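Changelog-adjacent note: as of this version, every example in the card shows the full chain rather than a window. The one below runs 153 residues end to end.
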Amino acid sequence: MKLLLLCFLIAISSSYTYAGEFLGAPVMDGGEVTKKTDSEMEQMYPRNHGKIVAFYKDAFKDDHDVSYRDRGNITYIEELGLKPWHTIIISPIDTHWTKVVIIRDNWIWTLKNLILPFAGVFVVLFVLYLATSISGAIFSRKARTRKIHRTSS
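Full-length structure tokens:
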């Protein structure tokens, strides 16, 4: 009976096993940690890119604050809510190895997305101001020289 119950639990459990978590993000079992600090963890997995992406899509299937971006071979998973992690980057090294990097949420990303567009608007407005000032000066000088030529003739 216990064996039957154990087989049933194994059958209904997820096909992926968790090795734990880092900054609240799930970490897939079977990876080799190559770098770990307080704000970043890098792991190498002897699996292909698709299996690891499927693991994270399964892990975050009920989380609505997670967005996925595919840039060629590299997949970015970004958490847009209040969790301590910000990005999971999944990139294939070759056909059999994949690198997964989990990065802590930081203020640099936030400031970059808020301040750069704000400052960019003023840079564009300043360039337009300079262009209209220069063209206005050129046109007023031409109008003045034409007016002088008309009065002297």
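Structural remarks: The chain is about 45% helix and 30% strand.
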